[in-house]
Amino acid sequence: MMALRYEGWEVRSAADGLRAVRIARAFRPDTLVLDVMLSDIDGLEALRRLRGEAPDMPVLFLTARNSVEDRVTGADRRRRLLHEER
To answer: What is the pTM of this model?
Structure first.
């Protein structure tokens, strides 16, 4: 986060998914960076809750998960999320 601030970006952070949703709704960021593994709701659920208000907001997902099963599950959930938007 400090590197982004150093480059002139306004940055907000949240310790969990529900706070991330509240902050994003209030702050209206140009880009969202979400961790897939948040403590209460995961990053995909946080994004699902925000997509109705900001359908075109770019999102970067971070994760420590790296198994094939995790990637397939993430891709499937992303596909379903995109399908819900239509």
So the answer is: 0.73
Q: Which amino acid is at 85?
A: E
Contact 34, 11 (CB under 8 A): no
Q: For residues 27 and 76, what is the distance between their CA atoms, to the nearest angstrom?
A: 29
Q: What's the mean pLDDT when you consider all of the chain?
A: 84
HSE-up of residue 7 (Cα within 13 Å, Cβ side):
5
Name, in order, each residue with C-beta under 8 angstroms of 70's C-beta and a sequence gap of 6 or more. 63
> In this structure, are residues 57 and 29 in contact, taking their beta carbons and an 8 Å threshold?
yes
At residue 61, φ and ψ (nearest 5 deg) are -100, 135
Distance CA 46, CA 44 (A): 5
